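User: For a benchmark we're assembling, each entry needs the component sequences followed by a predicted structure for the full assembly. Here are entry 17's components. Please fill in the structure.
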Amino acid sequence: MADEIMDASVTELSSPVAWLGIIAYAFQIYFDFSGYSDMAIGIGRMLGFRILENFNFPYISRSIQEFWRRWHMSLSSWFKDYVYIPLGGNRKSVSRTYFNLLIVFFLTGLWHGATWSFIFWGLFHGFFLVLERLGGKKLLDKLPRPFAWAYTLLVVLIGWVFFRIEDFADAANYVALMFGSNSFTEANVLHFLDREKLIVLGLAALFSTTLPKRAIDLTLSFLNKFGTWHHWPVELVKTVILMALLLLCAMYENADSYSPFIYFRF
Amino acid sequence: MQHSSKYILPVLFVMALLVSMFNSQFNIWEFEQSDENRDFDKKPSLNLEHADPYPDKYNAYYKDAFTFRTPLLSLFKEFKFRWLMVSPAPEHTMLGTDNWYFLAENEAEILAGKKDFSPEYLEEFRAEWQHRADFLDSLGIVHYWYILPMKHYVYQDKLQFQTPVSPRPKRITQLQNHLNSYFPGLVRDPTDVLIKARDSVEVYQRYDNHWNHHAGYTVALDMIETLKKDFPELSLRPFASFNWTNKWEQGGFHRGTLGVKDSSQHIMPVDTIEHAIRFSYGFPSTPGFPYPFAYEYSYRKTDSTGLKILIIRDSFGDYFKPFLKESFSESVFIFDSWQYKLNEEIILKMKPDIVLFCSLETHVAHIVNH
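Assistant: Structure for entry 17:
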């Protein structure tokens, strides 16, 4: 769905469809990248290495500062250790700190690809980080949590448009469309949704939060009060769920090459 | 027990890999790869001097040859269609309402107006038809172009409400309007005739993109009525005069894509004693046509009008063939691999009185860019 919408010309989209596309893309890039990171962590552990987590529920962040403490943590810490701190970090003047931040995020954008869109994406995040340091963070802390969360998500989603759409002008048009400008068509958001996609979007939203993890932790701590008898059944349930997921993945991967020829018979 | 539980998952995972590997080698369980009707990728040979394409080719081969491909596909279809109630192959089949299923592919884009013809494209049609009309008129041959509608336009009310449908006139109407100013009456679109007929009987197959023999008869009747302007002696045998039989079948493109196993009943005409006799001119089939046996169907009938008709058709023609062949002294049905060419050689040899070009609206562009 993300690819279908984001690859389409803006003339074929409407504002709600543009929002749907970027939300779907936000989930796609998170679960794709986080999934790959988990595979590396798992394979590393099989070989005896303990690799640090790379993502920590970034979409629950309530500021861009927090977002970068939760998103692609290995890259953030590398830039912090090898660029930000050698540049002087926040040990020099305030203006130099802001400049260092913008340099780091300019390079973060460039690291993802040598296009204006990536550079803009990096500087866009850098700009909001500076803004938060200039006092925005204090304001965010005073705001009700949903507002701070909505602000962060809005900045992140707009940033993803420039990350996903290579051509800067196309990306700018897409953002304009999201906010109702040049709403060219009557393309209906329902054209892009069906039961399966709604389920996947719902699950993606749920698993982007800490709710499932907290529910499992609460259940286990409740069961722990009654001794250790539940360990084996819990392990069994976990195994069944994981094997079912493996089967599901195999089914989808296998179906990827399914290509029936229309003129089967006549 | 608690200690051993952490080994369950790796053991099951390794077992899943080993079972697939053993079955690939020894074929303990064999599954037919029957429902795709295409050539599956062959195992590539490794050439170390040109090794770059090997991984992709091997991946494609492995996906096609994976030992549990068929049961996994069945499970996938079951999961998507029965549980999630979505199409397992949305790029091929879209779900309608009341157990009606529609082709997605090009048809969905045509329906959404994404394949409308540009003015330049319409001009190409005009130029092509000018060429055809010049040739056919010089021989005194009556000709029409029947554009056979997609199921989507006859059963538009059975499409799901969110299916994109262009608010503009459909592209065939645009084409018909354009050509009408140069060749009045050339293009015939039986959509309305079929919509009227569906009030009393189903005219398309629910699980396939094709129409049925009821539609075939309805359109054959429309053709005869059209041709009566030039040949008033023409008539079509009444529907009831054909012998009909009920046939249960499991076929249908969408049955395959959706994984539906049950059958449905179709009414089929059976030739009677006085039916037209098949013969062959022996016209060579279009190169590369996957069904050369269907290229030429020629029939003669002694007790009729003395008129000869040539029909350039596609698979939809199978459904009006049994009726039309009974109304002419000679009828030739040519399936030229969806190219709908003028076929001058056939015309010069056969010398028909009438030529009908009958193309599914999906493929009309083949006339100018085949």
